[in-house]
Amino acid sequence: MVALSFDICNSWAAIASTLAVAINAGGPVTLLYGIILAFVVYAAVAASLAELAGIYPIAGGQYHFTSILAPKRFHRSLSYACGLIAAFSWTALGASATILSAQMLLSVAEYYYADYVPLPWHYFLVYQAINVALLLYNLFALRATPWVHNIGLTITCLAFADFRSSDYVWTTFESQTGWPAGVTFLTGWSTPCFMYAGIDGTLHLAEKCTDPVRVVHRALLSTVLIGFLTAFGFAIAMCYSINDLLSLLNTTMPIYALWRQATGSATASTIFLIALMLVVFFVVNAVQQTASHLIWTLGRDNGLLFSNRIGTMHPTLHVPSGASLSTRPHLHRGKYLPRFDPGI
């Protein structure tokens, strides 16, 4: 569960793939101090969610918490709104992670073939190929998940460079946005915050793990701490490696250009990017699993259209196939799934 939670947030992939936002809006100062601020804010969020998950280890997560804790007059409407927002958010998170992997792949082709210009439909085809491949994995090979996420947790990225001065990294605020410093920092802060997108993932898989009262609580808090330590070290190395800031802003994948600056080697930077792309595949895989379980839970609670299809488990694969791919209604291992009663 810790590995799964970190694979979803994955500080390396989040920082590397959205680097352009932070360096365009404040430079290294926004990135480094933004990571510290994000850690403080999301530690408070994770502690609150962990406390609730320890009491109510239910796959619906926040929308179940809302139903239980909100005033009786509003608990159904607030719970339903929270559930729909969560479902759409996880779907969007899956889409963003998948398109990032497509951008990484095509940026390699764009660099090695000077006359190649990726077109929108190229991104679309690669995006769908990755999406379908991981969907098939989650339908037919989900039992391999524990060791797959453990592998994803161990992948790391390194870089070697002619380092910039500490004064540049820690005190120079560079903005290409034209906005005041405060607005610029908040804009660039989206990069550090992105590394905690999907921090609630373990909540939605609570019903799939043993001893969820203890495990989910620890997984949430561990993810925040691991994310900070790995992201901060990674970001410091990247910021010391920036030699030409403006050139990074004119590329599809700035981290690829930065690694070429840092290493002076196209081969080394390509290896790093492929390693990062593999990390993103783990992210997409984990997001698909979590999103499908959340949508399955909403269907189980009759919260969506075609709930009789979406809210069922496949009888032999034991995965929420209806939430990932429409299928005929089934029973979960021969028993009716329990309905969540917001009035309890």
Characterization of this structure:
The protein is an all-alpha fold and 344 residues long. The chain has a single domain, classed as Amino acid/polyamine transporter I, CATH 1.20.1740. Helix content is 67%, strand content 1%. It is built from 17 helices and two strands. It has helices at residues 2-9, 11-17, 19-24, 28-55, 62-69, 75-112, 120-140, 145-154, 166-171, 181-188, 190-194, 212-240, 245-248, 254-263, 266-300, 307-310, 321-324, and strands at 25-26, 174-175. The chain has a two-stranded antiparallel ribbon. Helix 1 runs parallel beside helix 12 (212-240), helix 4 (28-55) packs antiparallel against helix 12 and helix 14 packs antiparallel against helix 15 (266-300). The longest helix has 38 residues, at 75-112. The model is unreliable at 152-162 and 325-344 (pLDDT under 50). Pfam families: AA_permease_2. It is found in: Membrane. Keywords: Membrane, Transmembrane, Transmembrane helix, Transport. InterPro entries: AA/rel_permease1.
